[in-house]
Amino acid sequence: MKMTCPKCKQVQDVDEKTATCPSCRNVLRRCVDCSKYDVRVSLCKAVNRPVPVADSNYPTYASPSTYCREYAPASAPAG
């Protein structure tokens, strides 16, 4: 799947094991960029669990989105 890095804005071709951008080492999967995340209530609809706002916007290696198997980008990468 192709994803746009939220930090450096480069389009990356990633698989489900890839956690970080090869260019800037930023975590690629953010809940706020996933189609299964409800921003209004900070809830992941895929696993039906709340996600703290800090983790949804600025994920760390321990955040739920970092290695999420249900992750689906809300929009296609530009480029």
In short:
With 79 residues, the protein is mainly beta. The chain is built from 1 helix and 5 strands; from the N terminus they run βββββα.
Description:
The structure is a single chain. The protein is mostly beta strands and 79 residues long. The protein has one helix and five strands. The chain has one helix at residues 53-57, and strands spanning 2-4, 11-13, 37-38, 43-44, 49-50. A three-stranded antiparallel beta sheet has the order 3-4-5, with no helix packed on it. A two-stranded antiparallel sheet has the order 1-2. It is globular, with a radius of gyration of 12 Å.
Tally of strands: 5
Mean pLDDT over the full residue set: 89
Query: How do the strands line up in the largest sheet?
Result: 3-4-5
- How would you spell out the order of helices and strands? EEEEEH
Helical residue percent? under 10%
Largest sheet: 3 strands, antiparallel
Shape: globular
**What structural class do helix, strand and pairing data support?**
mainly beta
Radius of gyration: 12 Å
Stretches where pLDDT falls below 50 for ≥5 residues? none
What's the number of structural domains?
1
Tally the helices: what do you get?
1
Could you tell me how far the N terminus lies from the C terminus, measured between alpha carbons in angstroms?
13 Å
Q: What share of the residues does DSSP label as strand, in percent?
A: 15-25%
What attributes does this structure have?
3-stranded antiparallel beta sheet; 79 residues; two-stranded antiparallel ribbon; mainly beta
Topology at a glance:
Elements: E1 2-4, E2 11-13, E3 37-38, E4 43-44, E5 49-50, H1 53-57
Antiparallel strand pairs: 1-2, 3-4, 4-5
